[in-house]
């Protein structure tokens, strides 16, 4: 009887999302009520609910990190928060009554419906899709293979160790993993799958971003008229991306190529949908940074309230440091630019507030930063970024083809082509920025403190994205994520402009601008729909023998990886039922199925890849020595004696060896793959206990 993994994923993700409400909504409501920031107690109920999740993201991640070493203390804190929330609900029970509360207005019902629709889209996009004995994950599983393993590790210990470099003592993980800490809490509480917990977290990330749009319009932009309609428009604009669909069509027509992610045609400015599905931790970092900043900008009547706001802002900036180093770097640069600007403008409250909150944040985040900046021998930390002009490879390629020149000789055109580059990446939001500049030049918009601050945020994003590049990994993550700050401001302005176009008043912009913006908006919506669809179905298309394999080229070379994925997940499901959480499962470090191992194993590996992901902690030289011992088990069976297999397992604490039919050792019928009795076996996978695990009485053979 086949297990329906799609149903299991959907149920598990819904359960995780429900439990995450205890960690992502409840604490923020209690924090808001106790501290009364943003005049929380006097706000409408809908405003209180909207503020709750952003306040949680601002405070809870750093608290979980600091208290995670003491689990009893951590759970005692959450128990107190939940009891406090229950007391507040009882106290304010009339507020939540459908008959007596203004909470249940038509616009609020629409907002709730939008949040539910997003949660359905997120979960449907991320869960595995099963067709009998074939199983297909989303393209974003490429990234989830890392973060699921980190979440599983965080469920075992805080701070987590590098799950791809199992050792005693553990190798501290050097990564921005605070979002994974939050997602690991339901795993601890209800023993849910770490991957399903992350899916539930992604559903919440969209709700948190929508809440940020609401408080951004209310507390930053200070929109007053038709606020609820502006908020709904802003949430709708999350569907709008740049003009990426045009280069995508060009690549298909001219090169017969379809990329797994529409963003990959260029140095991307990631769409909101893509950012939420791939990297929700960067989104939550944006939320933490903005909440911290808004806390400092909110006017207060009493000095005590100002002190509370500064302290909470410090927590927010400390949380941001562990949610996304890249986004925090961009925001920190904005603060560095804002401080002297504030002195010139005599905004001394900004200078004092940001300086004090920054000092508190540094103190709180210091234990995390020590881990992040620690040296690990040959894996010592590289600089976060280097100077580099943003590229425009497709534009250069097209011009080179027209001029019949070598593309390398035209790289100098990257600078003059930047406006076109950004127009294609931002689309509708590029026009919003241009219209905002025109309105300021024509004095239709005053250059207020808010306006100048917003433009400085945009300038900072473009400064980083244009002239800096990541060095820690191959992709330019910094150049992609830094634009979230600018994208958020442009989205808020876009909501105001669209609301003006839809209102009865005559738009103050030209007919041409209005038409062009509408076309770009339509193309942006089509791009997002195409992108989400392709992320979901690309692996299925890759596996279809009727389609051109060159068109749907991806990580897996074979055309039956749906069956392989099902086999691997089935094997890991059986192993996870019988193995303790501390068990180490070792697969071929050079396997092409690394995504499946990352998202399904939920256990550490002694050599997780040819470099043990040592950039995230651990000595690469040590990994190289391990690789020399472990890799031959899968490649050179004739020279490996059966006793040597157990010796290697004992040396590195390996409990289970897992072989696939693509490993060389599988083809040798006198190798350990065939001479030992497997605990799990199917057409594609055979798993064996080894070393000390062979004698462990508690290990059950899989049925």
Q: End-to-end span in angstroms?
A: 13 Å
Strand order of the largest sheet: 5-6-8-7
The biggest sheet, with number of strands, parallel, antiparallel or mixed sense and barrel status, is: 4 strands, mixed
In total, the number of strands is 8
Report the portion of residues in β strands.
under 5%
Q: How many alpha or pi helices?
A: 28
The helix/strand class is mainly alpha
* Low-confidence runs: 697-703
Radius of gyration: 26 Å
What is the residue-averaged pLDDT?
Answer: 91
Provide structural commentary.
The protein is mostly helical. It has a domain at 561-695. It is built from 28 helices and eight strands. The strands form three sheets. The protein has a four-stranded mixed β-sheet, with helices on one face. Strands 1-2 form a two-stranded antiparallel ribbon. A hairpin with a 3-residue loop joins strand 7 (680-681) and strand 8. Residues 697-703 have low confidence and may be disordered.
Summarize the structure.
This protein is mainly alpha-helical.
Comma- or semicolon-separated keywords:
single chain; 703 residues; mainly alpha; four-stranded mixed β-sheet; two-stranded antiparallel sheet; 28 helices; 4% strand; disordered C terminus
How are the SSEs placed, and which strands pair?
Elements: H1 5-24, H2 26-35, H3 45-67, H4 71-91, H5 106-126, E1 129-131, E2 134-136, H6 141-154, H7 178-190, H8 194-220, H9 227-236, H10 245-255, H11 272-278, H12 280-297, H13 303-323, H14 325-345, H15 348-373, E3 385-387, H16 393-403, H17 418-426, H18 428-441, H19 449-467, E4 468-470, H20 477-481, H21 484-502, H22 511-542, H23 561-578, E5 585-586, H24 594-600, H25 620-630, H26 632-635, H27 642-652, E6 656-660, H28 672-675, E7 680-681, E8 685-689
Parallel strand pairs: 5-6
Antiparallel strand pairs: 1-2, 3-4, 6-8, 7-8
Helix pairs in contact: 1-7, 1-8, 2-3, 2-4, 3-7, 3-8, 3-12, 3-13, 5-8, 5-9, 6-7, 6-24, 7-8, 8-9, 8-12, 9-21, 11-12, 12-13, 12-14, 12-15, 13-14, 13-15, 14-15, 14-19, 17-18, 18-21, 18-22, 19-21
